[in-house]
Every structure is written in structure tokens, then in C-alpha cells.
Amino acid sequence: MNIGFVGLGKMGHGMAQNLISAGHAVTVWNRTASRGNDLQKLGAQVAASPAECARTGTVITMLADDAALESAVFGENGILKALPAGGLHISSSTISVALSTRLTAAHVAAHQSYVAAPVFGRPEAAAAKKLFVVAAGTAADLSRCQPIFDAIGQRTFIAGAEPHSANTIKVLGNFLIATTIESFGEAFALARKSGIAPEKFLEILTGTTFTAPFHQNYGGIISREAYEPAGFAAKLGLKDMRLVLQAADAEGVPLPIASVVHDRFLSAVGRGNGEKDWSVIAKLAAEDAGLK
Amino acid sequence: MNIGFVGLGKMGHGMAQNLISAGHAVTVWNRTASRGNDLQKLGAQVAASPAECARTGTVITMLADDAALESAVFGENGILKALPAGGLHISSSTISVALSTRLTAAHVAAHQSYVAAPVFGRPEAAAAKKLFVVAAGTAADLSRCQPIFDAIGQRTFIAGAEPHSANTIKVLGNFLIATTIESFGEAFALARKSGIAPEKFLEILTGTTFTAPFHQNYGGIISREAYEPAGFAAKLGLKDMRLVLQAADAEGVPLPIASVVHDRFLSAVGRGNGEKDWSVIAKLAAEDAGLK
Amino acid sequence: MNIGFVGLGKMGHGMAQNLISAGHAVTVWNRTASRGNDLQKLGAQVAASPAECARTGTVITMLADDAALESAVFGENGILKALPAGGLHISSSTISVALSTRLTAAHVAAHQSYVAAPVFGRPEAAAAKKLFVVAAGTAADLSRCQPIFDAIGQRTFIAGAEPHSANTIKVLGNFLIATTIESFGEAFALARKSGIAPEKFLEILTGTTFTAPFHQNYGGIISREAYEPAGFAAKLGLKDMRLVLQAADAEGVPLPIASVVHDRFLSAVGRGNGEKDWSVIAKLAAEDAGLK
Amino acid sequence: MNIGFVGLGKMGHGMAQNLISAGHAVTVWNRTASRGNDLQKLGAQVAASPAECARTGTVITMLADDAALESAVFGENGILKALPAGGLHISSSTISVALSTRLTAAHVAAHQSYVAAPVFGRPEAAAAKKLFVVAAGTAADLSRCQPIFDAIGQRTFIAGAEPHSANTIKVLGNFLIATTIESFGEAFALARKSGIAPEKFLEILTGTTFTAPFHQNYGGIISREAYEPAGFAAKLGLKDMRLVLQAADAEGVPLPIASVVHDRFLSAVGRGNGEKDWSVIAKLAAEDAGLK
């Protein structure tokens, strides 16, 4: 397939590379163009604008936030005007439910197809083709996407026919991970003050009930207080808590835990931890307990 | 070994049976004596008091709460006076950190040994010898316990030399499970109001990040809204949230999430859900969102 | 002065009337034009658009929310294009800090003056010229406003030179009132379950420490459970909690209490109480306690 | 009347002095006896034990916490055994609802009378006979107390026939004050970060809606960040939040705001602010916002 790929950040770069490896003809664009140099050597075309990517007829966007995606779609030399009628936009960014709804309407009005396909996984998983893809859109549109999903991920889940469903699931997933981090932070603070060795506490947690890989991952970071380098930055965690609270507010759903976690990220970023791993909120729980 | 076993509830009954199966000579006591009838057929002695169990020299207690254990230890015909000097009390109940500390002092004063050994696992795990034992006490005392732990559990974790450490870990473990339940409850409420099928949402959660068995278990209950029969009753969840908040208050550790979850259980029990599974707090999250 | 007045709701109607009574030449506009009929009899001109009001050179807006004000200012036949260079826009609506900042920039760019002047007080106070005006803008602009403030309120407070300061203070004021309501709701729930007569509890609160009029007002409503008719609707309380949380998020300030109160309003509205007095959140506190 | 007075702390000393001034024959006891020296010069008898105070037939207790009162009543040379049949114990300390209930039963069993009469007001008010007395007990017992209440306070409120009602009201009152402090702390943090002068913000709050003396008092402390010397120490605020949460838990009433405030005090005390004024929790709200 001819595929345009917009956004070559930590995640997007690996995804684009896997599309090339799978034999697709990929045209890439990134705000900082040099991020595409190595992909060019692998055979990618480097575009001068998102519009150029969209003219291929199938464009994937993997951008940092709502503002970046709005600019790429609705801005000058943007996707919306350049994508041919019948063309397909696959949005993989973690964006607001509201923007996904707006994109659905805009593409429908332009006789184009829109699929929301956020992904679960870290940059290593993106590079290794191990992402989970959570996709939502019409059945016809989704079937057009399948070769692409097969090239970037290990498994695809279909969330439903409404694209925004996939975005809601993505922000809920991040909310649930962040809640686990926060509760681990609180628990490790009490364990420490009670004289329990953090590594012993971690061994017991992960050896009994908390056996998922992310328990080991974040529990390990918290027990070692090793919040740098960031796997996923605290400032992005704050962004995602905003997204889930916005979605909840729009639907009339109180999320008391999400508010607590949001406030923790707000404080973490405000105190200069924005670039550290988002599990750094555990450090604040420890400080509130008078530790250190 | 000669072993006394005090408390034949859902958990204790299975544990006592496994001790018998392992070849130990077991003397059992329960407030409602008939709970020991079938164990008697398997060879157990049925005692008339906790004291009678304690006279064996090694007594395990597995009771419902602080009050029950205080009565069995400090009350008339209680363990403290009957246990010989050099005798051993293994406390497996989920009790307060404060009571564990008090028991440590009382047994030391009486020249007896005390080990805290709460267990992780449901009644089925107790019956199947699949419990995880989290034990704390002096190394010498713990080594005396090992044959007993081997008979009731699949694995033993040593939490430290201070018995109360094990109790702190136990209540923290339940706090972390309850937090997962609460956050799942909030997330499923938003998913439902957003038009996402609960079973689809569960499939995606458990197929990506939330891969531990308890995620599947509680996520399944919440997605099916099947809060009866209870695996672990909401009123016990409330008890455990009280225990963790008491321990945190005593150590000066704020646990904002635990307060949210405690309030949810308080409301759940106050609205008549005390005997339902503790995941029933998810129903309250749904009701707060105006569902149903 | 020639004054345009946009928005004749419960608050705006009384304010416009007081401007007429003070001898100003007032041109009014309201989406539902009939709200201006009685003012016309008092001498007001009825305009066909916000633009017509703006052409007077001094326009006051008192509208329901951001959307209504954005439409009146930036929409077709809006204020921004119609207001002459050197003209003055006084915004008294309870709006977002972000919109106030945007309006400041837009009016500056159009060589117009902008003053934020939200008011404290209920409709009765608006009718009786008893409002408190909290105004922010340049000193020169504020001095132009003084005759207007004198005509509508009992006292004017100058918040600072940046218009958005006044909006921040307004939403913080409503947050503080809502917090008092929520805490009264929790306290009355515990008093009731403890067997204390609500009217007795109220008498003691207001007779000792809680002596401000709003304590008596909301305490009285809560003790009598008389949430209708609404003095200020719960749906507006929800709006204001959103505004304060947005402002706090933008400035990086966690407001844990505001999140609790926001969730209470979200649930109150979701359960069908949106048109009741905003003190109806006390009913939810009672229900969470299993009362009724 | 012959009156025993137990507890000459900041509050009790002023109360005892006013009883002497009113012409009563007062016998005082304090753990540190020297606190009674000046009262002795005014005519008081200095007792060697609480029992000696109780032998007068009417004893008032004004002690720091549950433990101090339990010791004075149930301990060696305690009140319970020394108070004659028909004697009266007036408990003015801020204690737990549970202890008040226990005292009621103990005095009834000993054929003695028990009245709970906690007071509202600071040490200056105690010295100036300006306290508010909130009393609960049987009508007959309360009428015996009236000359005493008249001597120490400006007004007496009768809470009901059950003594514990008065204790519940007392802890609820302190919860409501603490909530106002916390919400002011959050609001001043946002005002500061928004560039609003704290003294200006305070002037507007207290000039409009927040007109009770405690608004001015705590708002003033917070705006000046003058948390020393303490009028009421943060460690006592923590104690009172524990008392209200215990009472709420026992009655099955969730108090989400009280949990937030409790956690704030826990953190304040844990970070070394226990002896500062309890409004110091506002400093933590500011720190969480990255101020300073």
C-alpha cells in the first residue's frame, strides 16, 4: 500500500519503520524533518507537509497531543483538504474523545474515512512490532486498515463502530495504570515507614497477587526510587489524566480516583518533575508521609 | 507435630484440613462447634476452648477480626494463659497492626513465641493448599513454623523480624486489590456511558496490560454486574480499609486513595450491600454516574 | 451615559433596570426579546442584536456561560466588530478565566477597552442594587465604569489590572461557597444519623461560629431538605466547579476539595437534580450515608 | 457550689478562674500542679488527685484527649470511684463520641450523673467568659449545670438528652472550621499563582460573602502566612479530624471532605508543623501548587 505517516516521535518512528519493513510504500512527515533521515535510507519518501502524506490516500497520524493533530489536519497544508475523497485517516495519537468526535464529523463531511486506532505499548514495543492496537470505525474502514495493523502490532482489538470508543478506552487504560502507580506509591510509603524493606515488599506483591508485567515494572521503579530516565514522562501522564477527566465530565461520570491522581501529576509537574517517569508521583506520596 | 487450630471459618477449615492431611495431630476449636465435625472424622480432636488448643504447645489462630482474636487470646479460657512457656502462637487472621504489636509484647512477657502469618488467597485456595503465607517473626520462631506453612500454602514469604510487618503487608495487599476494583468500577461506568460494551472493554483490558488473574476475576464480575454470591464480602472489605487507614494514621502516612475506597465501602454497606462481593463498590460508581 | 446591556436573565434584568433608574440611556438585547418588554416601558431601547448595543460605545454583557458570551462577542452581529474604537466592554458574566484572557487580547487588538466585572449576589440583590462588583482592568478603564458600578451595586472591589483576575476571584468565591455547602451536607448527614435534630444542629452552628448570612441560608435549606425552588441551580454549580478546576489546572494548582465538590455536582445533575438548588448536593451526602 | 475542676490547660485555667470569680468554691487539679498556683491565691483549693476534686460532688473535666480523661476517670485515684452517688461529672474536653458513650454507661452504673458540655471558643474566650457551651444530658442533670455554664460562657445550647450528641456536634464544628481553612488554603494558592495579591483577595472575600469572624481570622493568617504562634495547634487539628472520622465510621457516614483534610493534617504534622497553627495546612496547599 501507499501510506503516509505523520509524526515520527518515539512511538511513530518505530511504527513507520515496521510499515516499511512490511513492504509498504511509506511517505513520512515530521515537524523536525531530520527524524526521517534514517527512514529515507530504508526507502521512505520524506514529505514537506502532512498534506503530501495525505495525498497517498491513506494517512496515519501519531502526534503528541490535540494541538499537534489539529494543526496537521485542519491547518495549512493539512490532511483534511489534501486527502482524496474515499481516502482514509487512521489516528493513533492519544487525543481527546472530543477531538476524535470532531474528526469523525469532518472526514464524513469530506467523504473520507476515519478510524481511531490508539495503541498500547512503550517505544520498545513500537519498535519490536509488539503494540496492541485498539481500533474503532465502520467494519468496511477497519478491514482496509488490517494490513497496516498487522504491520505495526501483535494484536488488534475492535472497540466498536464509533471511532471515539477507541479513544475512550485508551485514556481509561492509562487512567487504570496511573491508579496502580499511585496506589503503589501510597503503599510503599506506608511499608517504608513501617520498617519493611521495599524490595521485600515488592517481592511479596509480585509473587502473590500483582503478577502483571506492569506491576513488576512500576513496582520496581518505585522500590528503587529510580524515576529517570522516563519511559513515559509525568507531563504526559498529566495530559492523559486531563483527557480522561474531560471525557468523564462530558459523559457525567464522577471519577474520584482520577481526580486524586490528576492532582498528584499536577503537583509533580509543578515541582519540576515533568520530564521524569510518570511513576514519580510515588515520590510525592512518600514526601507527604514525611519521608526523606 | 501437635497443633491447635482456633477458628474454622471459610479459610480456617481448609487450612486445618490440610494440616491433618499432612500428618499433624490437630486439635480444633470453633465458636460454633459443629464446624469441626467433619474434621473430627478425619482424625482431629475437638477442643472445648482456645485454651485446650493452646496446651498442645503450638496454636494457630484464624479468626474474623480483632475482637474475636482478643477474646480467644486474652479472654476466659484463652490462649495466653494456657500456652506453655516456650509455646508458639501463629496468628493468620487479618487483624490490625496495633493488635499484632500488642500480641508480640504479651507473648514475649509470657516467655512464649509469636509469629504473624497472614495468608493471601480465597477459600478455594485454602482448601487446595494454594495459599501464599506472609510470615514475620524471629528467625528461630519462623523455622519452627515452616512445616506448618508447607502444609497449608504453596509458598512462604518472610516479611521481616517484627511480626507486625506481615500484618501491614496483608492490609496493604488488600488495599491494592480494592483500589483496582474501585478504579475498574469507575472505568466501566465511563465505558458504559460512552456506549462501549462492557465485555468488549474487559477483553481489551485483560488482553493488553491488565493480565493478572485478579484483573480477570474482578473485571469479569463488574462487567457482568454479578456481585452475588460473595467471594469476599463487602463488609470485610470495609474492615480491611479501616485496618489500613489505622495503620497509616499511626505511621503518619496519608493514603488519599484508601480514603476514597473506604468511603465507598462505607456507603455500600450502609445501603445494604454488606454481604455482597466487595467488588459491589463498582455498582456505586455506576449509580453515581446516573446509570440504571 | 449611553449604555448597551446584553443578557436579561435573572441577574441581568435587575441590573439593567437599575441602570435605567439611575438615569442612563439603556439599549437592551436578549435572545428571547420579550424579556425586555417591561424595560421598554421604563424607557429602554430594545435592540435587534448585540451589535446594536455595542454601537452605544459602552456595552455590558451578563450571559449564562462561555458559549453565550462568545456568540455575542465574536458571532454574527457581534460586539467586537460593532464596538467603536475607544469603546468599552464590561463583562459581568461568570465565565472562564481563559475566555476573559482571550477577550482582553481581542479588544486590545481592536483598540477597545475591556473590563471584567463579575458580581456577587443573588437575583434579589441584583434587583435591589445590593450586588458586590469585583472589577479588574486598567485604572483608566475602571474609572469610566464607576458610574455604572454605582448604579448596580452596593460596593465595588478592584481586583487588579488584569481583567482575568476578577474572573478568577469570582469562580474561587463560588468554589468556597460550594465547599461550605458540601461540608454542611456531610455534617448534617452525620448529625442526623447520630440522632441530633437538624434544626437544633443548625441553631448551634449559626449561633456560635458560622454566623455569615450564607451559613444561615444554606444551613436552613439543608436542615429542612427544601431544595426547590432553586436560588442558584445545581447545573450552574457544576458549571462553576468546571471553571475553577480549569483555571486551577492551567495554573498548576491542585484543588482536592474542588474535585470532590465537582464530582458531587456531576452526580447530582446526572441523577436529575440539575434544576434544584445547588445545595441539593447535601442530599447526595445523606444518601451515601444510607439516609432515607 | 462546691466544684472540682480537673485540667488547667489553656482553656481550663480560664474556666476555673471564672468559676472562682462567680463565687463558687473550687478545688482544682492539674497533672503539673504549678498551673494551679495563681488560682490558689484567688481562693481555690489545690487537690492532689482527680479523686479529691470528685469528692466535692460536682466535677468538671477539661483535658487534652481521650487518654488523659480515661486516666482521670478510670485510673488510680480517679473520678469514678470517688464521686459520691448522685454526684455529677461535667465533661468539657473534646473527646471521642465513643468515650462519651462509655462514660455515660459507667456513671449510670455508679448511680452518678454525666453531662457532656464541650465548649466553642479559644483560650481568650475562655478567659473572658465568652465561651459557647454545647451541653447534652438529661433535663434534670442539665438544670444542675446551669449556674456553672453561666459562670464560664456567654450562651448555652442544649443539644439533646444523650450526652454523646454534644461531643458529635463539637467534632463536627471543628471539622467545618477545618474545611473552611483547607478551602481557603486552596483558593489562596490559586489566587497567588494567578497574580492576585493575597490581601486584596482577603478583602474581597470578607467584604462580600465570607463575613464571619473566623473567615477574617483564618483568612488573615493565610494571607500573611503567619502560622506562628498557634492559636490552635495543627496536632490538635489532626486529633479532631480523627475524632470526626471515627464518629462517622461508627455511624456509617462517608465524609469525603474530612478525609482530605485529615490527610492534610497528617502530612503537616509529619513534616514538622505540629505545633504551628492548624491553618498551616494552607501552606501545604501552596507547596503542592509549586509555590515558594
Features:
homotetramer; 292 residues; alpha/beta; Rossmann fold; N-(1-d-carboxylethyl)-l-norvaline Dehydrogenase, domain 2; 2 domains; six-stranded parallel beta sheet; three-stranded mixed beta sheet; 14% strand; elongated
Average pLDDT over all residues of chain A: 97
Helix content of chain A: 55-70%
Distance between the termini of chain A: 56 Å
SS strand fraction of chain A? 5-15%
Along the chain, the helix and strand elements of chain A come as EHEHEHEHHEHEEHEHEHHHHHH
Number of helices of chain A: 14
Largest interface (C-beta under 8 Å) = A-B, 64 and 64 residues
Question: How many structural domains are formed by the residues of chain A?
Answer: 2
Characterize the largest beta sheet of chain A: strand count, sense, and whether it forms a barrel.
Answer: 6 strands, parallel
Stretches with pLDDT under 50, minimum 5 residues of chain A: none
**What is the CATH domain class of the largest domain in chain A?**
Alpha Beta
CATH homologous superfamily name of the largest domain in chain A?
NAD(P)-binding Rossmann-like Domain
Rounded to an integer in angstroms, the radius of gyration calculated over CA atoms of chain A is: 20 Å
Q: How many strands of chain A?
A: 9
For this structure, the quaternary state is homotetramer
Neighbour order of strands in the largest sheet of chain A: 3-2-1-4-5-6
Q: CATH topology of the largest domain in chain A, what is it called?
A: Rossmann fold
| Alpha-beta content class of chain A | alpha/beta
